[in-house]
Amino acid sequence: MLRDELMLYLDTKPESIRDYPFGPEPLVMKVEGKMFALLTRHQNRDALNLKCDPLQAQQLRDVWQDVIPGYHMNKRHWNTVFIEGDVPVPEIERMIDHSYALVVRGLRKVDRLRLATGYGAQALYRGD
To answer: For residue 77, how many other CB atoms are within 10 A of its CB?
Structure first.
């Protein structure tokens, strides 16, 4: 998977926003102000940090050589995936979907509902 293709896929997540809180690199993808992906270079390779269920995180590391504990992240809850490695594109996309879903699940109920329905928070409070 090429970096540009990956960025396009990340942009398909509802209400995802590109952010650069650490300077021009790395790219941080957020939903409702919460990070679900971080695209950077690690060991001279393009890498993607993704949130992951702890049990699944370890299983992915056991299966794929190019999935390692999250670089500069909580290693229990984050993996680093080298995007041009042994992990197939559909699996990288599934990992992105999983990371996004974990972050959305942790949002306040009103924010989850707004994402699910496409309505703004004010409309939810008014009952629109």
So the answer is: 16
**Mean pLDDT throughout 104-117?**
88
How far from 119 is each of 79, 81, 109, 110, 111, CA to CA, in Å? 32, 33, 13, 10, 10
pLDDT for residue 102: 94
Q: What is the pTM of this model?
A: 0.85
Model confidence pLDDT, tens digit, residues 58-96: 999 999 999 999 888 888 899 999 998 899 999 999 999
In the chain, the domains with their CATH numbers are: 3-126 (3.90.1150.30)
